[in-house]
């Protein structure tokens, strides 16, 4: 659903004047000044680490500014915390998980607002559930209920909980920080239609995304940040993807995103799943991955592809059947998988792929003990430091130093660390679940090149993705899953057809 143009001649809602944010020596925002009108969807774009989330966090009362001013409805805007920002009409859906696991959906939606449902000394949970269910119904969210425990929900449904939570505040400004990559096609359509409805009713939507197709389709205007500086804004009629990329990166992007040639792959099977059955999703499932192959796996979010990725890596209990390597080794736990040079990049980066409270170096070297040993099991700190620095340099990871906590890095730079961690140990079979989630156009093309180079050097990649262009552009063979089964399998030589792939998903 594309939106009509409408940013021009609208009254200004947000005015930013010389806003700066320093984190120690890191300048995340540098004297940024721009304006956003009322009732528009404004895309906030820029490379990884350009300061988008920092601006959103300051506006939503999560982070304090270093200097500069923000005016909101012509008043100085300086919320001291998230609750104050929410009460005054600013709600945000954050990039990673913004929900608490061990409570229900309703309790997440009304976290900190329980008193709304107090009856004397007690809280009426029934009333809270009813109110939360109404918000879910209004949003046409049917995949879970208000009383569902949050830990049962996957990443997409947790994002929907956050969206529902934001709607309770009837926001004047709704900030969506890099959320769509966690959503399936249906979740995205739901969010787009909500953003449009809100904008039509006078809410300003600040939409952070790296997907320029989505940005140009959904937004009325965009504002571009580069290295913490404001580069400029464009109105809908000025949108041009190459121009936006150039504003973001400061130069033309060279080369093709995807690879065009059909080089094929070896007949040699390196990983085989035979009749595997898991607790949920998969029943007697079979698949083979070959040497030098990029095997794309696509489908709707509940098709079982996520479970498949985990099962192949030994991270999901297999009730029947088995996963084996070329030499017959059975993969039924992650330790064996790692020892046999397998890698797994989870879609849920912060929870399953990184230790957020450890440093950049500690994360990168976490599985590289053997490489950094000197005598027997003794690890050389010097070697480790050099090894970590190499990954940082090779992948241009933007961090103040390798000794900084990973939690302080931007989303895309965190993803580069996950890549670095597995590539550094020369993994031969890589299972990647949405590997380009949250990364900017420049890094995306670098990651695609890496994947292609790995394929050419005989490594095997299972690429699970919700992005059809990515699957089509990168895979030698595509398997589409539906309800835990293969609904279609097609080779690059037979020419991938987007419509056919979508048909097979539905
Ligand atoms: N708490 C923090 N401590 C130290 N540095 C930080 C902190 N938060 C952000 N930064 C740094 O500020 C810079 C801007 O980060 P920010 O998250 O705003 O970028 P972004 O444009 O949202 O990136 P992405 O697209 O990757 O999410 C980065 O260099 C980041 O490492």
From TrEMBL:
Database matches in PROSITE patterns: ABC_TRANSPORTER_1 (PS00211), ABC_TRANSPORTER_2 (PS50893)
InterPro entries to which the protein is assigned, alphabetical: AAA+_ATPase, ABC_carbohydrate_import_ATPase, ABC_transporter-like_ATP-bd, ABC_transporter-like_CS, P-loop_NTPase
Keywords: ATP-binding, Cell membrane, Membrane, Nucleotide-binding, Repeat, Sugar transport, Translocase, Transport
Domain ABC transporter, residue spans: 14-252, 265-506
Record-level Gene Ontology MF annotations: ATP binding; ATP hydrolysis activity
A Pfam cross-reference name: ABC_tran
Source domain of life: Bacteria
The protein's name in its UniProt record: Monosaccharide ABC transporter ATP-binding protein (CUT2 family)
């Amino acid at each position: 659903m594309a939106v009509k143009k409408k940013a021009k001649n609208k009254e200004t809602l947000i005015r930013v004047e010389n806003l700066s944010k320093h984190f120690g020596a890191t300048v995340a925002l540098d004297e940024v000044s721009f304006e956003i009108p009322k009732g528009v969807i404004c895309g906030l774009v820029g490379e990884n680490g350009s300061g988008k989330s920092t601006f959103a966090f300051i506006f939503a009362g999560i982070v304090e500014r270093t200097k500069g001013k923000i005016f909101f409805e012509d008043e100085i805007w300086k919320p001291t915390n998230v609750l104050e920002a929410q009460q005054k009409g600013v709600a945000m859906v954050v990039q990673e998980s913004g929900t608490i696991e061990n409570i229900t959906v309703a309790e997440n939606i009304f976290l900190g607002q329980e008193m709304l449902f107090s009856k004397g000394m007690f809280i009426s949970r029934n009333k809270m559930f009813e109110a939360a269910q109404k918000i879910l119904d209004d949003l046409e969210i049917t995949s879970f209920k208000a009383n569902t425990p949050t830990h049962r929900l996957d990443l997409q449904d947790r994002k929907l909980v956050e969206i529902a939570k934001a709607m309770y505040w009837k926001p004047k400004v709704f900030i969506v920080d890099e959320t769509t990559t966690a959503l399936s096609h249906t979740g995205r359509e739901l969010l787009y239609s909500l953003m449009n409805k809100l904008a039509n009713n006078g809410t300003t939507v600040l939409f952070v995304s790296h997907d320029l197709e989505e940005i140009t389709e959904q937004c009325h205007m965009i504002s571009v940040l580069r290295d913490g500086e404001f580069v400029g804004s464009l109105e809908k009629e000025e949108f041009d993807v190459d121009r936006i990329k150039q504003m973001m990166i400061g130069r033309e992007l060279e080369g093709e995103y995807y690879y065009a040639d059909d080089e094929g792959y070896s007949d040699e099977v390196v990983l085989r799943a035979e009749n595997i059955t898991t607790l949920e999703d998969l029943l007697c499932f079979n698949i083979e991955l070959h040497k030098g192959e990029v095997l794309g796996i696509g489908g709707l979010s509940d098709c079982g592809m996520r479970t498949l990725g985990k099962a192949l890596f030994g991270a999901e209990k297999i009730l029947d059947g088995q996963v084996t390597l070329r030499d017959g080794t059975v993969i039924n736990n992650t330790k064996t998988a790692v020892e046999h040079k397998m890698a797994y990049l989870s879609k849920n980066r912060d929870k399953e792929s990184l230790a957020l409270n450890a440093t950049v170096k500690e994360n990168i070297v976490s599985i590289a003990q053997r490489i950094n040993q000197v005598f027997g099991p003794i690890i050389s700190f010097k070697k480790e430091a050099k090894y970590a620095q190499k990954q940082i340099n090779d992948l241009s990871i933007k961090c103040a130093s390798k000794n900084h906590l990973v939690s302080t890095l931007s989303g895309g730079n965190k993803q580069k660390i996950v890549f670095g961690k597995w590539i550094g140990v020369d993994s031969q079979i890589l299972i990647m679940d949405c590997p380009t989630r949250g990364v900017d156009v420049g890094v995306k093309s670098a990651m695609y090149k890496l994947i292609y180079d790995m394929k050419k050097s005989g490594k095997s990649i299972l690429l699970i993705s919700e992005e059809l262009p990515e699957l089509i552009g990168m895979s030698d063979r595509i398997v589409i899953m539906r309800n835990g089964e293969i609904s279609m399998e097609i080779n690059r030589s037979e020419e991938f057809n987007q419509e056919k792939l979508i048909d097979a998903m539905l």
